[in-house]
Design a protein that fits this description.
heterodimer; A: 251 residues; mainly alpha; TorD-like; 0% strand; disordered C terminus; B: 886 residues; alpha/beta; Dimethylsulfoxide Reductase, domain 2; Barwin-like endoglucanases; seven-stranded mixed sheet; 32 helices
Chain lengths: 251, 886
């Protein structure tokens, strides 16, 4: 089976894979990113919880997101409240693992990575619109959702036999994956999973991390992957300070 | 081929010397950086000119004029607004760093409602609409209960406490619309006793010294160059005076601040004895014939003889005994001050933040009065602010006074006594249904801060706690609901601060749209009132009929005479300040007109003459006061009728009738404080601000945190040696409330009987940087991935906050907290002590409350301490309720 992204791997060759398989694969990937994007973009609501407990329960479990007893058996209100509290504590309130590329890259909200993300959305005919205050275009959930849209658009184009458009979208999609998600999102998911108290979010974030690395591995050269690995570790050089100089000022 | 002339070294030198004598030979291209701050800035990467938007700073409370540079919709740089005549295009380090507040990943960006136990840190996000609806419902319930029970005092159960209210009347409008008078400011943990020491004498607010033109400065307890009130403008002009005008400056401070160190002379008196020194100087000046007796006769409500008689006990020898400053130095400085013209004093927290701080301030003020230095060029001038109209209609104040907002035991404390609130609530003397907190963090900033935490944690005392803070402070983390305001760079406010000699109005406006759809506080107030009174039947909605915060601002600014003609609000948006007096001269930094002449700020404000029309029916009394319809309206001097000053009478009221009414000494006096009676092995604990931080709100700013983040306790080498304490060692500092464990910083720059610990450090909240959380927890996740903080925060010491061991004790006159009156013992840390340990008792703090009430005018210690006051002690006025104020 050929991954959608493998068609556009750096320096890779087009294959003669079965088109139907490719489209199925693209749609499956789109579905997974769409789900993960939605789960991270905002709190889980009643219809989504119903799906998570029902039709999505088994496939999620196979992917490592295993619903525990309380997730399944507690009343909907209780579970929704608990998940909303965890979502806020993990991703929103001060002290959270801020799910923004800007924060990961610069330590500040709404910096240049937010512009990059918005530019990518616009280039594809989309724009960002917040629902709650404090939301920015470089939110991981939004970026995953956008990636899902691109994968789906590629699938749609190929299904319609428009491989030229499909190729254009695939190229754009790969670039977004490497340049906008690949340089921070897996590493952030790794950190955020550790910070979460709720098994559901821990497993979800681990799933996103693994999926991103899998897709990046499929499209990135070894050199690119090595660079992305370093970026995700976020270990820029320390400033060479001698803190003792402060002593001279009496402090 | 060009033949080079043979030039000797001597020739070179001759040419160089000749050229050096011709000042006009110079580069036209190189300009000193400080002379080129002109309101334009360019992108470092694209070279494109950045958008510039004027604003008024509010990193601290000085309200400097600023320009924000915006690139790609982001604030990238701040600098001073050259059109602001008082701050003259300069910002301090705090002001330059303020934009970091906007993008701080620990900023609260959405309303949060508590889900766990109070203070547990569990939240759920909600929208601004949901949040304002929730608050409105809670408020409406209180209002409905008050109406159904026909008990309007219930309305005062809606309490609003602020630390900084720079909304230009929005908070009062909101609370009065709700019918509540329960508004608590912060001023008594600040300089209220300074104000109350001055206000009866000459009117509102503090002196504005003409530093640049003075020749002599007596600085009592103020770090002018770094932290005092109006620090930036005062520091600039003080440097102008001392450096350019060759003024002498003498500082009195228990600690060698950078201002004290920069002064010509530094004296370190015992804490709380500045008043004794000032009275002794007054004594010398009057008794040696150095006073301006005509000015005293014309402009004060006392006679020279009366003053001499009053000052008899306050000899330099007496002051030496109290303060430790040599009597000969007191005499010398007094003579210098009186004979050098013009001269001025300046004082800030040092003298006034004591029990009886109002007396100390009044004693210092008197030095200027008896030497005739008031309202003259280079002298001690009145504050100069400007007002602005409130949009009509304005809601009337609530019908029932709030004891918590203005405790009746303190009738002279015109800036209230907010420190007492938690004690009153805990004792059942005040009831709270809803506590609203705005720009306020008493769990960190107040004395015995643990008492505030104890109260706010208790849901039986505070059933509903709302914070409007955009930062998770020690107080906000206890909230039930957070409706985050935006930062000062994203909102509207009218402003006027008497920060210099040129009175002006200024504004805040959003220099960028509120980040991420956050909502400014002003809009939140509009929304809440509209929801409390949706159909207008409660009569509240009419006061908040603004379509937007900007429309509200227009209602303030569009009808001010003079400004209106220049464009009103639209002018303010463009310039940020009004009026524009002139330009900053690039060489002298003076404000000059188009001809290059310095703009005269105007002196002698008290000499504004009363019109003939207004004099009709007026009479001049033997005391040369002009009275009309039973009211004193001016002062008759040298055949002219002047409006005079704004205190109890139009004269300078060195004798304060209001003080006497409640059994306080009407003339400036000195009271020995309990801390002066300390045992030999004890120290007096003082606190101080530092130049790069506010009291509590800036520890989260990276630029500033790197500059200053830990606050070891300053201790004199002799004192340390006697206790076997070495520099940097852990020490235990104990007051009657308990102890903290911190480190010693041994320095000669502190009085041997004093320990000094700065504010701004030792946070247990206010974001991860302030707490150094990444040093305590798993660095991989704790900072949300901020690589800069994880890797480049090289310090691992956040300091220790001293407030828990500081006793509540207030000045019974002005209400100021006696920050510098806590007696402590200091010893090497004991086994098991850890750096940062805090162990204090709420119960003991409650005892302090009872003790400080004994000093209030109706307390037993008051009479004991004021035997000299000739008044019917058995018939003092009864405590009465009054509205609060700021």
């Amino acid at each position: 089976m050929i991954s959608a992204n493998q068609q556009h791997s750096e320096g890779g060759q087009q294959t003669s894979a079965n088109v139907t398989t490719l489209i199925d694969e693209l749609e499956a990937q789109a579905g997974l990113y769409r789900l993960c994007g939605r789960l991270l973009e905002s709190e889980i609501d009643s219809p989504l919880l119903t799906m998570l407990r029902g039709e999505l329960r088994e496939p999620l479990a196979e992917a490592g997101v295993i619903a525990n007893t309380s997730f399944i058996e507690d009343s909907e209100d209780v579970v929704l409240e608990r998940l909303a509290e965890e979502y806020t504590g993990l991703l929103i309130a001060p002290g959270a693992a801020m799910p923004y590329a800007s924060v990961f890259e610069t330590g500040r909200m709404f910096q240049e990575p937010a512009d990059r993300a918005e530019k990518a959305y616009r280039a594809a005919g989309w724009t960002f619109r917040s629902h709650m205050s404090g939301e920015f275009p470089d939110h991981l959930g939004v970026m995953l959702s956008f990636h899902a849209i691109q994968l789906q658009a590629q699938a749609d184009a190929r299904r319609a036999g428009d491989n030229e458009t499909g190729d254009t979208i695939a190229e754009r999609s790969t670039r977004f994956l490497i340049e906008q998600l690949g340089n921070w999102a897996p590493g952030w998911c790794h950190m955020a999973a550790k910070a979460s108290y709720e098994p559901f979010y821990q497993q979800l974030l681990t799933l996103v991390e693994q999926n991103l690395w899998a897709d990046l591995s499929a499209v990135g050269s070894n050199e690119t992957l090595k660079k992305l690995t370093e970026l995700n570790r976020r270990k820029p050089p320390k400033l060479d300070y001698d803190a003792d100089f402060r002593k001279a000022s009496g402090l | 081929m060009i033949q080079s002339a043979k030039i000797s070294r001597r020739n070179f030198i001759r040419l160089g010397s000749a050229a050096a004598g011709v000042a006009s030979i110079t580069s036209n291209r190189l300009v000193a950086m400080e002379q080129n701050l002109g309101g334009t800035d360019f992108s470092a990467t694209s070279g494109v000119e950045r958008q510039s938007v004027p604003y008024t700073c509010m990193t601290c409370n000085i309200e400097d004029g600023g320009i924000a540079y915006v690139e790609n919709g982001r604030v990238v740089k701040l600098e001073g607004n050259m059109d602001h005549a008082n701050t003259r295009g300069k910002l301090c380090a705090k002001g330059n760093s303020g934009f970091l507040h906007i993008y701080d990943p620990d900023r609260i960006m959405t309303p949060l409602v508590r889900t766990g136990k109070r203070g547990e840190g569990k939240w759920k996000r909600i929208s601004y609409d949901e949040a304002t609806t929730l608050l409105a419902e809670k408020l409406r319930k209180v209002i409905d209960r008050a109406n159904s029970e026909h008990d309007l005092k219930i309305l005062n159960e809606m309490v609003f406490k602020w630390g900084r209210d720079r909304t230009g009347g929005a908070v009062s409008r909101f609370m009065h619309a709700l019918g509540s008078n329960a508004m608590l400011n912060h001023t008594n943990v600040c300089e209220s006793s300074k104000k109350v020491g001055l206000e009866p004498t000459w009117g509102p607010d503090i002196e504005s010294c003409d530093w640049a033109n003075t020749k002599y400065i007596l600085n009592f307890g103020s770090n002018i160059l770094e932290t005092a009130y109006f620090m930036n403008p005062n520091a600039q002009r003080c440097v102008d005076g001392v450096v350019d005008n060759k003024a002498k400056i003498v500082s009195f401070d228990v600690r060698l601040s950078n201002t004290a160190g920069w002064s010509d002379e530094w004296f370190a008196p015992f804490p709380g004895t500045d008043g004794a020194i000032a009275l002794a100087m007054n004594h010398v000046i009057l008794n040696e014939g150095l006073a301006d007796e005509k000015f005293i006769t014309d402009w004060t409500n006392v006679t020279v003889d009366q003053l001499k008689e009053h000052l008899k006990p306050y000899t330099p020898e007496f002051a030496e005994q109290e303060s430790g400053m040599k009597a000969k130095d007191i005499r010398r400085i007094a003579r210098e001050f009186a004979t050098t013209k013009p001269a001025t004093t300046f004082s800030y927290r040092g003298p006034c933040k004591h029990v009886y701080g109002s007396y100390q301030e009044a004693a210092i003020n008197m030095l200027n009065v008896i030497t005739g230095n008031v309202e003259i060029k280079g002298g001690y001038c009145l504050p100069r602010g400007m007002g602005w109209p409130q949009p009509q209609p304005v809601p009337p104040a609530g019908k029932v006074a709030s004891a918590m907002a203005a405790p009746p035991e303190y009738p002279l404390a015109s800036h209230a006594v907010s420190t007492h609130a938690p004690y009153m609530v805990k004792k059942g003397q005040a009831k709270v249904s809803i506590w609203m907190s705005y720009y306020d963090n008493p769990v960190y900033t107040y004395p015995s801060s643990h008492v505030w935490k104890d109260m706010l944690e208790d849901e039986s005392l505070i059933p509903f706690l709302v914070s409007f803070s955009p930062y998770m402070s020690e107080t906000t983390e206890l909230s039930d609901l957070i409706i985050p305001d935006v930062t000062y760079l994203e909102r509207h406010d009218p402003e006027s601060m008497p920060s210099g000699l040129y009175p002006c109005l200024s504004i805040r406006q959003p220099v960028i749209k509120p980040l991420g759809g956050t909502q400014e506080f002003r809009q939140t107030l509009i929304d809440v009132i509209q929801k409390v009174d949706p159909d207008g039947s409660l009569g509240m909605k009419q006061y908040f009929a603004f379509k937007s915060p900007e429309e509200w601002m227009r209602a303030h600014m569009d009808n001010i005479p003079g400004l209106k003609e220049e464009g009103g609000w639209d002018f303010m948006k463009k310039k940020g300040v009004w009026p524009i007096y002139g330009k900053v001269d690039p060489v002298t930094a003076k404000i000059v007109d188009k001809n290059g002449n310095e703009v005269d700020p105007g002196y002698g404000l008290h000499k504004s003459e009363i019109s003939t029309l207004d004099m009709a029916g007026a009479v001049v009394g033997d005391d040369n006061l002009i009275r009309k319809d039973g009211n004193a309206i001016g002062v008759h001097v040298d055949g002219k009728n002047y409006k005079g000053f704004g205190g109890e009478t139009p004269k300078l009221n060195l004798f304060k009738e209001s003080y006497k009414k409640y059994g306080f000494n009407p003339l400036p006096t000195y009271k020995r404080l309990p801390s002066r009676e300390k045992k030999a092995n004890e120290l007096v604990l003082t606190t101080y601000k530092v130049n790069v931080h506010t009291q509590s709100r800036t520890a989260s700013l990276k630029y500033l945190a790197e500059l200053y983040h830990k606050n070891p306790a300053w201790i004199n080498p002799k004192t340390a040696s006697a206790r076997g304490i070495k520099d940097g060692e852990l020490i235990r500092v104990s007051s009657s409330l308990g102890h903290i464990v911190t480190r010693a910083h041994i320095t000669e720059g502190i009085h041997p009987d004093v320990m000094a610990i700065s504010t701004a450090c030792g946070h247990s909240a206010y974001g991860r940087l302030a707490q150094l959380k990444h040093k305590q927890a798993d660095a991989e996740w704790a900072l949300g991935g901020d690589p800069d903080i994880i890797n480049n925060v090289w310090w691992d010491d956040k300091g220790v906050h001293p407030n828990p061991i500081i006793k509540l004790q207030v000045d019974p006159i002005g209400g100021s907290q006696g920050w510098y009156d806590t007696v402590v013992t200091v010893e090497k840390a004991q086994d098991g002590d850890q750096y940062g340990d805090v162990n204090v008792s709420v119960e003991k703090s409650l005892q302090d409350y009872e003790e400080t009430l004994r000093f209030a005018y109706n307390g037993d210690m008051h009479r004991e301490n004021h035997k000299e006051v000739d008044i019917d002690w058995d018939n003092l006025p009864k405590p009465t309720m009054k509205s609060g104020g700021h």
